[in-house]
Amino acid sequence: MFVSILTLLVGLVFGARQVEGLDRGLVAVKTSGGVFLSWRLFGNDPSTVAFNLYRDGSKIATVAAGTATN
To answer: What is the pLDDT of residue 70?
Structure first.
């Protein structure tokens, strides 16, 4: 019982959320219709985050906030 309470208190003091140190993790897969792109949305990204996609230095798309990350 003491160990359970101690574990709970430590979680409250040091933050209960455990996360890994990952990058965006872009994945590109060639398909019959072109190239499928997908990437990570971080748990601490703001709800207004948007992404600009570039190919060979030219912007090809903007993915608006709140849409899928692919």
So the answer is: 87
